């Protein structure tokens, strides 16, 4: 096996173009599990941890540009205010050790329906910035997931960063697992209220072949909030309940060892209702981040 | 009644520092190494010229092997040997109690993961790739995956109408083994066969398949020896029973097969059966090279037995006042493909299946069955864990039916010293069931759940996953009690051997304790040191490597090693002491009545220091080897289940406080409180550790731990999906340790390790039941059960 350690982004892209079957490795928390279980026998590994750009985040054109290799621990400590939904999701991931190593770029490239970054990124309307020797493109995150563990990434491309606009309103993230920490999501839900755009963002995890939005629920809620945005009035309980139902209706879950389809649907309706209640309470208090 | 003494948790015994005799919090000799990651476990074994062995396993739960072609595997460069059952020179089947399990598959495979062939190669990956090239032609059969179906008991055995014997004769399902699918049927018949009662509650219960989930996988290193024999370094629980089975398979005498214990990373019963032992020896003898085998996590789930899943039907009858009149119980334990320790597990589940309560009229049928599910055998609690869920659920149901407080009902029917057990045995030492419960009741309750802005997510069901800020959360409290036999029962010749040596090295008295008792993490090595310090009055005690150069210590299981090997070490120390004192008397030249060993000297209260050990021993070594037995038990009557089956009972009780998000079905155990009588806490800190660990393992079974098996296939062989409690699942504990000496046991001690594993889960289940108002008849409880989805 070859082990490449490019020192620059250009070298990394060249290495990937030269060996398309090569497997990039960032935190290694997915790659090494696959290797240890004998499911992956890469001929070439490209270690991305030496590429400085990937380990940084910054503000670019009004958005946070989060380098693909920034670990969750830093998302939590450095970006809790700017990316509240993603930081809440990051807190639910694995253990301290996993959060020290695991990255959003790795979560995206694995594209597991259970990946915890996805619902938060979907709700926030993030873009994935990918690059190859051919150039750079931006993919709306809702178009990034193409099937179970399949993404829009071409075989010569690497993920450079995700771009997320700072929140104009409250965000929430909620995840079901059958133990109280270190657990893969049985179902997850991300919510972002966008008062600036009078819009609502949602993201569903672990309840369909890919992470996905709940567009009907978004539209319904945006309609119901028409007028309430300004008044910051109370949200009728029935609205939150209906929103929960519509989120649940957007899911297409299966029965598996982690849970039944029926439970996932039920849990999504509860999580959507509760997170909306919390987010709206925060909005009424005028707290834009509520993280 | 024996004299009560009480050692509150956290007794100020730390002053004794690293050393210390019995009753002190002596530090583990292996503790620092383990914390630093420097301790060598079985998987760390290494020799420069070693080969790696891997196992090819059956993908099918039930199939006939038409043919095996090892040619393609042998052709892989780097491969040194590929072996099948044809290469097993001795007995081709083995087993702990019944020899029914093939060393390597013969004509039929009976469970998914059954070993079929072995490969040794110079690299583990090479060996794995080669194993994948062995061509096995299987004729796949329909597996039998339900214990009652396997026994031909499609409906509950209604004892009145259809005697069990009749249904057994009518069994229709395929026989997995020539003798049929019944491994053991235990009957208890006591008192009135047709009792009636004012109040009757009937319940059916199910317990899923729990795994030991030890962190150190099965591993060992076999080294061929010049004398044609083999030396095996292996992480195991009972060196001598391994040795017996390995010798049979290899067709070798005992002096040619020598075992040394490698570092064991947890056991909990899962290392009582052989795993890679014979396989590594076969490969080493075949290749003439040392061979290491170490399972990965996934293989480990197929490499050891699990806890028997159980289905149980209980009927409790009581007077209006709440006195138990009778219990009828029918218990099915799914033993999987091979017997392992199923007969003994059936014995425990049956004889202790009604809990620590006095029941005048008893009718129990407990069955162990063969199926094509993964083999099940020993696991901490050994049959009592399953039945405790049933009998404690029944006690709560009965209390509800009577409108009585569940603790009152338990106290009213509790065993005490002098009570008679369902197997007709008089409890002849302390049985402080009432006190255990009353002490729990008297403990303060944890604060009420926080709400609104005060919420710390880590205290909520769901934790930082942020599923509730108090919505839907309801609190529940539950109690449960365990009683468990200590050591081996039913007439088994249960003994241990200890060799103790005393000498003076560099002017300092040094004792060496040599036993074959497996240290699996529980701290027996510390206990051995403490006993020698106390009995021989020396500070420095060396624990020799555990190996078969000394006689059997019996198994590290059944909460028995501190009792039995502790007893052997104590006896050997006493014999050494006697010789030393007698030499001292000779040297002094007259009778000093109160001579004893203390601080490396021979002292007398009357005369002070008489002699130093250097003066008594000079360059001599005093060594004694002793075999020690606890008092004999006897087999139970096959028709009535009566007999003095158990040498000692351990009692513990738990109170669980839980918060349940009733809408999402998520559980947060808020607090676990435990009271346990340990007779004498030889090492109080280790006792607390056992109680905490046992509690966590019981909690795990109540709310998350289950090997999911569908059509005989394991669905979750990984720690990704076989979940065990994390620090956010296991709450802080309140623990009170009682010390009522058992006059029959060394130092009055009682085995500690299993009881808390038994009472913990049922207490959690009872608490969830109280929080939700749901009947909950199956563990582990899943969110689906709590939400009806
Ligand atoms: C114990 C444990 C617990 C876990 N818990 C959770 C959890 O709670 N929630 C959750 O979502 N996940 C969890 N995971 C999975 C894992 O930690 C996450 O998916 C993590 O985000 C992966 O990031 P990484 O940097 O470690 O990825 P790696 O393992 O390094 O890579 C993952 C994939 O991404 C590719 N890749 C990495 N970087 C790039 C890049 N810049 N461009 C293109 N491809 C790239 C790799 O080739 C590989 O295919 C857990 C894993 C473990 C071992």
From TrEMBL, chain A:
<dbReference type="InterPro" id="IPR036318">
    <property type="entry name" value="FAD-bd_PCMH-like_sf"/>
</dbReference>
<dbReference type="InterPro" id="IPR005107">
    <property type="entry name" value="CO_DH_flav_C"/>
</dbReference>
<feature type="domain" description="FAD-binding PCMH-type">
    <location>
        <begin position="1"/>
        <end position="169"/>
    </location>
</feature>
<dbReference type="InterPro" id="IPR016166">
    <property type="entry name" value="FAD-bd_PCMH"/>
</dbReference>
<dbReference type="Pfam" id="PF00941">
    <property type="entry name" value="FAD_binding_5"/>
</dbReference>
<dbReference type="InterPro" id="IPR002346">
    <property type="entry name" value="Mopterin_DH_FAD-bd"/>
</dbReference>
<keyword id="KW-0560">Oxidoreductase</keyword>
<keyword id="KW-0274">FAD</keyword>
<dbReference type="Pfam" id="PF03450">
    <property type="entry name" value="CO_deh_flav_C"/>
</dbReference>
<dbReference type="InterPro" id="IPR051312">
    <property type="entry name" value="Diverse_Substr_Oxidored"/>
</dbReference>
<dbReference type="GO" id="GO:0016491">
    <property type="term" value="F:oxidoreductase activity"/>
</dbReference>
<keyword id="KW-0285">Flavoprotein</keyword>
<dbReference type="InterPro" id="IPR016167">
    <property type="entry name" value="FAD-bd_PCMH_sub1"/>
</dbReference>
<dbReference type="InterPro" id="IPR036683">
    <property type="entry name" value="CO_DH_flav_C_dom_sf"/>
</dbReference>
<dbReference type="GO" id="GO:0071949">
    <property type="term" value="F:FAD binding"/>
</dbReference>
<dbReference type="InterPro" id="IPR016169">
    <property type="entry name" value="FAD-bd_PCMH_sub2"/>
</dbReference>
<protein>
    <submittedName>
        <fullName>CO or xanthine dehydrogenase, FAD-binding subunit</fullName>
    </submittedName>
</protein>
Automatic annotation (TrEMBL), chain B:
<dbReference type="InterPro" id="IPR037165">
    <property type="entry name" value="AldOxase/xan_DH_Mopterin-bd_sf"/>
</dbReference>
<dbReference type="InterPro" id="IPR008274">
    <property type="entry name" value="AldOxase/xan_DH_MoCoBD1"/>
</dbReference>
<dbReference type="InterPro" id="IPR046867">
    <property type="entry name" value="AldOxase/xan_DH_MoCoBD2"/>
</dbReference>
<dbReference type="InterPro" id="IPR000674">
    <property type="entry name" value="Ald_Oxase/Xan_DH_a/b"/>
</dbReference>
<dbReference type="GO" id="GO:0016491">
    <property type="term" value="F:oxidoreductase activity"/>
</dbReference>
<dbReference type="InterPro" id="IPR017609">
    <property type="entry name" value="Xanthine_dehydrogenase_dsu"/>
</dbReference>
<feature type="domain" description="Aldehyde oxidase/xanthine dehydrogenase a/b hammerhead">
    <location>
        <begin position="36"/>
        <end position="142"/>
    </location>
</feature>
<feature type="region of interest" description="Disordered">
    <location>
        <begin position="1"/>
        <end position="27"/>
    </location>
</feature>
<dbReference type="InterPro" id="IPR036856">
    <property type="entry name" value="Ald_Oxase/Xan_DH_a/b_sf"/>
</dbReference>
<dbReference type="Pfam" id="PF02738">
    <property type="entry name" value="MoCoBD_1"/>
</dbReference>
<dbReference type="InterPro" id="IPR016208">
    <property type="entry name" value="Ald_Oxase/xanthine_DH-like"/>
</dbReference>
<dbReference type="GO" id="GO:0005506">
    <property type="term" value="F:iron ion binding"/>
</dbReference>
<dbReference type="Pfam" id="PF01315">
    <property type="entry name" value="Ald_Xan_dh_C"/>
</dbReference>
<dbReference type="Pfam" id="PF20256">
    <property type="entry name" value="MoCoBD_2"/>
</dbReference>
<protein>
    <submittedName>
        <fullName>Xanthine dehydrogenase, molybdenum binding subunit apoprotein</fullName>
    </submittedName>
</protein>
